[in-house]
Amino acid sequence: MDLSEGKHQFIQAWGTLGTSWGINKAMAQIHAVLLLAEKPLSTEDIMEALQISRGNANMNVRNLMDWGIVNKVLVPGERKEYFATGKDIWALARQVTVERKKREIEPILKVLGQMKNVEGEESEALEEFRQVTKDIEDFTIKVDNVLDKFYKSDKNWFLKLLMKM
Amino acid sequence: MDLSEGKHQFIQAWGTLGTSWGINKAMAQIHAVLLLAEKPLSTEDIMEALQISRGNANMNVRNLMDWGIVNKVLVPGERKEYFATGKDIWALARQVTVERKKREIEPILKVLGQMKNVEGEESEALEEFRQVTKDIEDFTIKVDNVLDKFYKSDKNWFLKLLMKM
DNA sequence: TTAAACTTTCAGTAAGTTTTGAAAGTTTAA
DNA sequence: TTAAACTTTCAAAACTTACTGAAAGTTTAA
Q1: What is the CATH topology of the domain spanning B3-85?
Q2: In chain A, which residues from 7 to 46 place their CB closer than 7 Å to nucleic acid strand C?
Q3: Tell me: the pLDDT tens digits for A39-89?
Q4: How many CB pairs under 8 A join A and B?
């Protein structure tokens, strides 16, 4: 397989994988294109590379910027906007962690918090309900803490932790 | 809020949350119903509790069984099949980990493995491609290892690890 | 100013996913 | 056996999410 075919395959695959990560295909593919690009790309470059519409390209680039994964790059003397993504995978992972925490963890905690308002005659059924919801909450808080630590950590900390494990 | 309203809200919420976890709504809701039930439920019980069709109930119960989260329970003297889920959240988390690893991590490693077949004249571009794909692979393998450890671990191990962090 | 170059929005359409329910299949017990 | 009780399958319908492309908006520089 030659380089351009490899890149092509990687971009396709990254798009598919993205969907199982809760990231839409175009968003993941744009990220892949930028990751493999040798210089910042314009919206048009992206449209062409992936054969997608202007609206789609624009919206997903913006999403990637909201996630803090892609940056605008201004090329001196050029009017057009260019985009690039960092090639540091650790930084990427940390940013993705924040977003997934926001989407997957925080809403659980919110719902479980509300379950504390359940009241009524004390009974075994009520007791069990409280136990189950509390167990889930305790666990979720722990996961939340781990992800927070990961986010705040640097690569070395993580590697050291792995050693300890 | 009284108990039955609390349960109802929890079941609804668990369904919605499920979708942001890559689990479909009915599957997550069935899990919630079983989690809060005081005894094993039949397909009909589930259909009624969630107002869903037989096909939907059947398919998603089967999915939950494939994930190892729900078990068939045979009630002596009864022809019908009943289903139950464990109330141990740690066990649940570990089983979910296996499935998510299968869906989210393993396919990445497979794609990255294929990227090793990229060949051609040595150039800076090729070098960079190799670097990026290798970085992602290294990181992914580390995450994979952590998840494996978690899966194989018990609750205490995890709690101790949290202390160290 | 103004008009050219560029970016963003959004209503309509397309694609993908989930759900339904009736039909087919299976098991059990009489 | 066979028929009743139950489970599974699957094509079509409903729902959800993503994408398009033209129109509206914004910025820049002459």
Answers
A1: Arc Repressor Mutant, subunit A (1.10.10)
A2: 19, 42-44
A3: 999 999 999 999 999 999 999 999 999 989 999 998 888 888 999 999 889
A4: 125
